[in-house]
Every structure is written in structure tokens, then in C-alpha cells.
Amino acid sequence: MWTKDEIETRAGAVPPEERPVPAGRLAGIGSFLGIYGGEHIAATEFVIGALLVTWGVKAGELLFGLVVGNLVAASSYALVTAPIAVDTRMTLFAYLRKVMGPWFQRVYNFTWGAISVVWAASMLAISATSLKEVFGLPVQLHAYPTSGACVALTLALAAVTVFVAAYGFRGVVRFSSLCVPWMVSVFLCGALVALPLLCAQTGFPAVRGPSDFLALLEAHVFNGSVPEGRPHLTWIHVAMFAWMCGYVYHLGLNDMSIFRFAKKRSYGWVGLFGMYLGHFFAWVCAGVMGAAAAAVLNVGLDKLDSGAVTKTVLGGAGLIAVVVAGWTTATPNIYRAALSFATFLPKWSLRRLSFLVGAVIALAACFPAVMRIDMVANIAGLIVPPVGAICLVEHWIFPRLGWTRHWNLYRGRAVNAAGLAAWITAALFALAGVLGGWMHPFFLPLPTFLVGGFAYLLFARLAGANRPVPADVRADVDAVEARIAARAEEDAAKEDAATPVSAAPARLRSRLATALRVLSWAALALMVVHAVAVLLGVAPLGAGTSAPLDVFKSAAFALTLAYFASAALADALRRRTTSRTPTGRR
User: Fold this and answer.
1) CB contact set of 196 (below 8 Å; sequence gap of 6+)
2) Which of 43, 99, 178, 358 stands 20 to 30 A from 365 (CA)?
3) What distances in angstroms separate CA 170 from CA 158, 175, 459, 475, 555, one per listed residue?
4) C-alpha dihedral, 373 to 46 to 35 to 172, nearest 10°
5) Per-residue pLDDT for 161 more than 80?
């Protein structure tokens, strides 16, 4: 039996970010609505929306495929990721210490950290394309940067993102919650004003209802034509693609880092909000905007970047949209990357790690090659999620078979050989599928996931996962795990005790914050109403001889500035006038 000092030493060796989330740090459902709304309306939605246009899928097939694929993706969050995250209160990076051992944990953490770095860099690089339009900078056509001004611009954008991510989960929540309402409005307005623009360029009658809208999509957006040399895809490809876009986060369990803060498992259904907002609504809107911009500029859609599309349709507000969408997606990925690298620098604070990781991401974003997000997604989708399959099997299936959950932890081995063998087996299966070409890349992740899970069941059985653990060994290990959780609670209590509790809310500040919040929502409402007026061909008051779209662009830019100024100030006032509770929540 281990002594009390031995237990304390072993528990103290586990970094703070690998400990379970204390009860006082759990968050309500509103936090997850903000995160998933912001993350799934990303800069890549402009790229993917345009990409869907080139797949040759008719509008009806596309919409059906997106409904099915996003429903499966959202269900994966709710039925797989959130329950395990709430049960463990750990990140996947921490949970791997129990399931796969510290050696494999380091290998996986480095792999996922590298993928998160590239992913976040891709978002920032796409965001930078919008400001290049403003300053007239050249389009970067090579894998490496060819303009010093473009590099400086990208680094400036990255600095804001890193600063937000450095404040951890709360910083990500606050930033996303601020941006989501505006981004939804901008995508909606972009589609509304793009419709008459597309009609004018193609000679299509004005859109006056859902049937007209679907007919326009069928004729001039998702019309079934594909560029020369590209395959014609179907609704099932669309469904699998929509599901695969979040695959590394739900079935791959990487969003345990977010859902570990959820008070309830049911918060996993927030994925429905994020998926249909970003991977349905935003993709369709982006496709309409892309088709309109291509028609106006008389250029193939595959030759336009996000900045050119949004500038043509939305003007300055559209350029801001690309920037903000990149920020809201890059921020959670910087947070995830910092968590993954915490294993290698356990004495570093998460904030310090975020700045280090952010610096690497900022430099990577200067290279246009990182905008090949489809290639990054395919690689991540094949090598990462089988680890999720292994954890899922151990967490849920082992107890039902009467086997020992976390059996490798009780044995004290640095690596779970059965898990490593299962991961390698799944990776070889995926490699064979890619090289053999016997399955479309969109369909390969699911069988790869299943191969990883079944292989782990087999190898774990051979390695003795079904054998009982000696009582004294179980008692020692369980005592260490209990002490790790207790230390997390103690550290949270010390942090709360060191934080001064503010006085009761100042009535004047509270009222001012409410007024500013109303003003921010009014700005969004006016922007949407103005977009509807453009769609209906109604010239706004004071427009004179100016084209309705030109007037809308100016108004949308001004209303955007009004929204962010009022919403940010309202948030700052609310935080200053709200008492901090002893549990650390606001």
C-alpha cells in the first residue's frame, strides 16, 4: 500500500490542466451556444460554401444531404462526446493518461497539437484575405509568402486571436458570444442582397418566395455542373462531408476539452445549433454569395478568395465578417492546442502556453499553403478519431463486458500496447484505403473508426483487460485519482478566495448596459431589414439615385461598427457590475 506522502507526490505530478474540472467551474448552456455558434460559422464556411457549388450536386440533393449529415454530426456530440466529457470532467489529452498511458498520451498530444496549429493557422490565413482586398495587396498564389505587407497583416490579425485564447475557456466564451449574433445576421444579409444581384446577372426573375429561391439555386448556384476533370458527387457525399467536418471533435472526442465544463450531458445537443447554423445555413448563404460574386466579376468561383466574394456582395461588412469568422474558429483551436502541449510543459500556465502556441500559429498563417483546409481535414479525420474509438470502447463497452476500465492505469505501464496496436491497425487500414482508391475519402473515416474500436477489443482481450485487478492495487490507484480531483477543488477555492468580491451591481451601470445591449440588437435588426429592402427592390429613404446595394453596403458597415461598439461596451459594463460569487462563476 502507498503511504499518504506517496499518494500526494503522485497526484502532484499531474498538471492542473489534466485534473477534473471543479464543480465551481461548470458553465451553463449559454456558454456552449456561444462557442458552437461562433466556431461553426468560420472563415472556412466561405470557402466550403463555394466548394459545394463545384461538386455538381443539385440544390434539392444538397439540402437533403446537409440535413442528414448535420443531424448525424450533432447526434455524435450529444450521444458520444458530451456524456464521456461529463462523466470524466477531463480533456481527451488528460483521459489518455488513464486509458493509453503517459507515453502514448504524449504522442497523441503532439499529433493533435500540430493539427490544431495548422487548423488555426488556416483560419487566420483565410481571414487575412479580406484585409488584402482593403489594402490592395496581391493574392498569394504560392505555398510560401511573397509579400512582406501580407505577412505583417496576418501577424496583426493573429495577435488579436492569441490574446483572446490566452484567457482560456471564459475568454473563448465571451468572444464567441459577442460575435455570433452579428455573424448570423451578416450571412443572412449576404444571401438576401446576393439574390437580386445574381438574378440581374443571369436574367432570372425576381425571387418572391421559397419556390423561387429553390429554382434559382437549381438553375444558377447548385446546378449540377462540375468543372472539367472533377467528379460528380451526390447527396450522400454531401452528408458524409458534413458529418466528417466535425468528426475529429465528436467521435474523435477532442471536444471533451469544451464539454468537460458542461453542467449536464444534454448540453451536447447544442451541437444541433452550431451544425445547422454553420454547416447548413452558412454554407448555403456562402454558396449564393459566391455564385453572385463570380457572375458579377465574370470569374470562375474557384479563382476567387473569401475576401473578393464578401467585398463584392457586402462591402466593408463582408470583409469584417471573414476576419471575425476566422478569429472565432481559430480561438478555440489555439485553446485546444495549448491544452495538448501542456503535457510537455507542465510547469507553464495555460496562458503562457497559449502565447507560445499562438506565436507558432501566427507564423504558420503567413504561408498560404495552410489554406488547403480540405487536405488538413482529411489527414486529421483518418489518423485522429481511432483514438476516440479506443476510449469509447474502454469507457462504455468494457464495463458491460465485465472488464476493467482503465486497466492499463492499474498496471502502471507507460503505454497501452493493445491501444497502440489498435491505432496502428486503423491507420494502416486508412492508408490502404487512400492508396488503393477503393473508397471515396469522405466515406473512409467511418470504417477506420470501427476498425480501431474492434481491433482494440481484440487486442485488449489478448492483453488481459478482462482479468480482475488486485484489491490493494486498485485502492492505491483510486486514492491517487481521488487526490488529483481534490487538488483541483482546492486550487479553485484558493483562486476564488484571492479574487475580491465586488459590491452589489451599480444600478446606473446595469441600466446603461441594458440600453447598450438593446442598441446592439437594434443595429442588427436594421441591417436585416435593409437587406430585405434590397431583395424586394425597395430603395431606402435618402438613397437618392444611388443603387440600393451600394447604400446597403455603407449602411451595413456603419451598423456593424455600431453593433460591436455597443455590444462590447455592454459586456464590459455587465462584467464590472456583476458580483463574483464564491464559486468563481459570474
Assistant:
1) 206, 207, 534, 535, 537, 549
2) 178
3) 19, 9, 41, 36, 32
4) 70
5) no
> Average pLDDT of 448-476?
93
User: 54 to each of 57, 381, 442, 500, how far by Cα in Å?
Assistant: 8, 22, 16, 56
CA atoms within 13 A on the CB side of 383: 15
Which cell numbers hold the place of 35? 462557442
Name the phi and psi angles at 195, rounded to 5: -60, -55
When pLDDT is cut at 50, 70 and 90, the band that residue 585 belongs to is very low
27 strand-pairing partners: 262
| Tens digit of each residue's pLDDT (9 = 90 or more) over 227-285 | 776 777 889 999 998 998 888 889 999 889 889 999 999 999 988 888 898 889 988 88
- Name the DSSP letter for residue 18: G
Find out whether 422 and 455 touch, Cβ atoms under 8 Å.
Answer: yes
Residue 157, CA distances (Å) to 22, 130, 167 in order: 34, 11, 17
DSSP code at position 42:
-
What's the pTM? 0.81
Give the side-chain half-sphere CA count within 13 A for 272: 9
Rounded Cα gap, residues 456 and 468, in angstroms: 18
| Residue 358: all three cell numbers together | 499562438
Helix (H, G, I), strand (E, B) or coil at 180: helix
Closest CA to 34 of 188, 182, 186, 174: 174
Per DSSP, 501 falls in state P
C-alpha cell at 119: 487548423
Q: How sure is the predictor about 422, in pLDDT bands with cuts at 50, 70 and 90?
A: very high
Contact criterion met (CB below 8 Å) for 390 and 407:
no
Rounded to whole angstroms, what are the CA distances from 452 to 29, 72, 124, 210, 461? 32, 20, 33, 44, 14
Q: Which three cell numbers stand for residue 428?
A: 494502416
Q: Which three cell numbers stand for residue 389?
A: 474509438
Please give the backbone phi and psi of residue 332, each rounded to the nearest 5 degrees, phi first: -60, -30
**Residue 497, C-alpha cell as written in the block:** 478566495
* Angle, CA of 45, 50 and 52, to the nearest 5°: 95
With H, G, I as helix, E, B as strand and everything else as coil, classify residue 544.
Answer: coil
Please give the Cα distance from 452 to 425 (Å, whole number).
Answer: 7
CA distance from start to end of the chain: 43
Is the pLDDT at 43 greater than 70, yes or no?
no
Query: Do residues 202 and 318 touch, judged by C-beta distance below 8 A?
Result: no
- Side-chain half-sphere CA neighbours of 286 within 13 A: 31
Per the DSSP assignment, residues forming a β-bridge with 262 are 27
Write b or e for each residue in 231-264: b if 16 or more Cβ atoms lie within 10 A of its Cβ, otherwise e: eebebbbbbbbbbbbbbbbbbbbbbbbbbbbbee
d(CA 559, CA 314): 12
Cell of 296: 458579377
Beta carbons within 10 angstroms of residue 437's beta carbon: 8
**Which residues are bridge partners to 398 per DSSP?**
none
CA–CA gap between residue 159 and residue 155 (Å, rounded): 6
Quick check: 576 pLDDT over 80?
no
